[in-house]
Specification:
Blueprint lengths: L1 E6 L4 E8 L3 E9 L1 H5 L6 H22 L9 E7 L3 H18 L3 E5 H8 L6 H7 L3 E6 L4 E6 L6 E4 L6 H11 L6 H9 L24 H14 L4 H30 L5 E5 L6 H10 L3 E3 L11 H14 L3 H4 L23
Parallel strand pairs: 1-4, 4-5, 6-9, 9-10
Antiparallel strand pairs: 1-2, 2-3, 6-7, 7-8
This protein binds 5'-O-[(R)-(carboxyoxy)(hydroxy)phosphoryl]adenosine and zinc ion (ZN).
The site of 5'-O-[(R)-(carboxyoxy)(hydroxy)phosphoryl]adenosine has 20 residues, from α6 and α7.
Length: 351
């Protein structure tokens, strides 16, 4: 089955063609990072306008690279939310128009859930069937730090999320405090390589004994106070500070993963890690050495926002709903910015 994926929730426009949920035939991403860098973060209206100019050419490129015709597409999956509403509407409107024109089923997809499937792209279906589910999955991005228990590719039981900042957001804010450009995560990782992770003591946020949740604002405030008190930092002091911060920011993720493995016990076969922070090499090392369970990380191109992960989840959802053609041809749904709301139908009362 040939699935077209479309993603436009934040600052990456992406279009992909994926066969049977795992085999990526093409995956095109147009990043807006350079456009937003001058503002120090993503500007929603600028993002929406950039998606508008990027989406059509990207679709043409994705179809050409996959060596298919638009009529060969069997299913369209599109990010419904969460994300920036103006940005989402570009992808959703494009997808609805294309689905109507091609008369193909359309599947709205949750962006955060789709990230998890980034970790499974390119793997053999038999390996996934035998060695992955039930699993724990952790999405660590600029907007989310969500830990799920999954007994199938489409069931997401939220076990923990952040009380305040997301992990990637904390990397970005700390980078700003240190005068580093956006996005800060990759810059901190590079500087941390030359630093000593035990050089600066960091507060332990949500220890293993505490509840299943994440919290990053205390760590960010600690960094702000430390840098203000310290004044200017030499190159080696900055490297030590980055390494110490990174160790605690990632350490918190590993502590909660261990705790979740204990809670779910022998039921869990593997751990899937996804989202921008999953690109961090130190994080990969920590997970491999500290968790006594198989772990799957996405290829670097599928850590960031991409459309192949959207196509993958759309395919799994389709397999559940495939007998409900009416549902699949229905376009009467909206994009959602933060939370998914049930549609409220106004009641008309006759006197
Ligand atoms: O998944 P993503 O591309 O976009 C969102 O949906 O947010 O994640 C971007 C986030 C940013 O906060 C970025 O700083 C962080 O992922 N990030 C990293 C690394 N690469 C990206 N954080 C730590 N280490 C990295 N190597
Ligand atoms: Zn994302």
């Amino acid at each position: 089955m040939i699935v077209l994926g479309i993603e436009s929730s934040c600052d990456e426009t992406a279009v992909a063609i994926v066969k049977n949920g795992h085999e990526v035939l093409s995956s095109k991403i147009a990043s807006q990072v350079n456009v937003h860098r001058v503002f120090g973060g993503v500007v929603p209206e600028v993002a929406a306008r950039e998606h508008l100019t990027a989406i059509q050419p990207l679709f043409a490129e994705a179809v050409a690279e996959a060596k298919i015709e638009p009529a060969d597409i069997d299913l369209i999956g599109v990010t419904q939310g969460p994300g920036l509403i103006g940005a989402l509407l570009v992808g959703v409107s494009f997808a609805k128009g294309l689905a109507s024109y091609l008369a193909k089923p359309l599947m709205p997809v949750d962006h955060v859930h789709a990230h998890v499937h980034g970790a499974l792209l390119g793997l053999e279906e038999s390996l996934i069937d035998e060695h992955v589910f039930p699993c724990l999955s952790l999405v660590v991005s600029g907007g989310h730090t969500n830990l799920y228990y999954m007994d199938s590719p489409t069931s997401f039981e939220l076990m923990a999320s952040t009380l305040d900042d997301a992990c990637g957001e904390c990397f970005d804010k700390v980078a700003k405090i240190l005068g580093l450009p956006y996005p800060g995560g990759p810059k901190i990782e590079v500087l941390a390589r030359n630093g000593n992770p035990s050089a600066v003591s960091m507060p332990t946020m949500v220890s293993e004994k505490q509840k299943m949740m994440f919290s990053y604002s205390g760590l960010k405030t600690h960094m702000l106070n430390f840098v203000e008190k310290q004044g200017s930092l030499s190159e080696s002091e900055c490297a030590d500070l980055c390494a110490s911060f990174q160790e605690e920011a990632l350490g918190q993720l590993v502590r909660k993963l261990k705790q979740a493995v204990q809670i779910k016990g022998s039921n869990v076969k593997s751990v899937l890690i996804a989202g921008g922070v999953a690109a961090n090499k130190r994080f990969r090392e920590m997970v491999h050495s500290e968790l006594k369970i198989s772990s799957f990380f996405p290829k670097l191109t599928y850590c960031v926002d991409n459309a192949a992960m959207i196509a993958a989840l759309a395919w799994h959802e389709y397999n559940i709903d495939k007998n409900d053609q009416q549902l699949l041809m229905n376009h009467d749904w909206d994009a959602y910015s933060r939370y998914r709301f049930e549609k409220v139908i106004p009641q008309v009362h006759s006197m």
